[in-house]
Amino acid sequence: MRETGTLLSFRPSIKVLDATMRDGGLVNRFDFSDDWVRALVRANVRAGVDYMELGYKSDPDLFDKSQFGMWKFCRDEDVLTVLGGVPEGIKLSCMADVGRCNYERDIGPRENSPFSMYRIATYINTIPAALAMAEHCHKMGYETAVNIMAISKAKEKELSLALDLIGNSAADIIYIVDSYGSIYPEEMRVIAERYLEAGEKYQKAIGIHAHNNQELAFANTIECTALGVDYLDATVGGMGRGAGNCRMELLLGFLKNPKYKLAHILRFLQQCMPYIREQGAKWGFDPAYLLTGMLNRHPGSAIRFVDEGRTDYAEFFNELLEQE
Fold first, then answer.
1. Quick one: which of 57, 154, 163, 175 could link to 207 by a disulfide (CB 3.0–4.6 Å)?
2. Residues 151 and 229 occupy one common structural domain
3. Which H helix or E strand runs over 292?
4. What is the pLDDT of residue 4?
5. Residue 103's closest CA among 130, 125, 81, 124?
6. Exposed (0-12), middle (13-18) or buried (19+): which is 156, by Cβ within 10 Å?
7. Confidence tier at 6 by pLDDT (50, 70, 90)
8. What is the pLDDT of residues 60-70, one digit of tens each?
């Protein structure tokens, strides 16, 4: 039976995952300085964060390495060099996208790697390929998660089949992913219950990764937490693609487990995040993201709107409606 909690209690089963470098890397091409990365690792360790996702395991044959920082590719040897070994007190995670990772070549045995977990990012129609990747990672000794992206677009029957397929796989965790930031808390409650039922049936943990297009990432995350979802994603300052993600400072301020120490994240937010903004990275709520979230659309058009410096929101709304 899954555990739930109250506003004044905590569940030891909850795990917080910092995705600042992975989701945030999408807005600065993964161009983080070594010192900045080490400072974020220290902040997360001191704050009691359970996992830190450093980036993607992308295939360098598909992406021009000169156009991205190393965290787009997360080579084990690069990670170990920058961090000076495997940090104590936190587990490292890496994401692998279906179709964008040569996992058989690039994901080797756990004992030779700084990573403890691989999370497989997939759309509903590529679940079989995702499960092959999860099986490989499992055999290599890693904790494995399958993140079903754009869940707000999934059909009822497709989701049921996907949950059964993942339930019967080697994956340890199934993630709810509100890629478009379009899900409202009462809808999230229904979705989370479905995932949790599958989790109980197949003995899988459930996680939540929320986007902030309608400023609901934190609300949806704590809604899931109340129901019994254990793996919670957040990013410092909400840094992430487009509108960004659930803010780490909000989440740690909400969780009552005394192991989490908010002050260390606040100090990093104060001292290190302005540098990222100064380098030109853009993220955070904008009415353009509200509109794509409200209409359950990919945020790509809103990202372009913001990058172009547009403020004609009514015209943009009409453009989106004409695409229906």
1. 175
2. yes
3. helix 287-294
4. 72
5. 130
6. exposed
7. low
8. 999 999 999 99
pLDDT in tens, 161-195: 999 999 999 999 999 999 999 999 999 999 999 99
250 and 304 both lie in a single domain: no
Q: Write the secondary structure of 15-41 as one string of H (helix), E (strand) and C (coil).
A: EEEECHHHHHHHHHCCCCCHHHHHHHH
Give the pair of three-digit tokens for residue 122: 């997939």
Q: Determine contact, residues 91/144, Cβ cutoff 8 Å.
A: no
Angstrom distance (rounded) from CA 321 to CA 295 = 9
Residue 34 domain flag: yes
* Residue whose pair of structure tokens reads 């499992």 in the numeric block: 138
pTM metric for this prediction: 0.96
Cβ 205 vs Cβ 238: under 8 Å: no
Tokens of 93: 């995670």
Nearest-angstrom CA–CA distance, 97 and 33: 24
Note whether 236 and 300 are same-domain residues. Answer: no
Residues 266 and 309 in one domain: no
Single out the residue of 61, 129, 73, 121 nearest to residue 97, CA to CA.
121
Give the domain range for residue 115. Answer: 15-278
CB 102 within 8 A of CB 133: no
Structure tokens at 182: 């379009």
Mean pLDDT value across the chain: 96
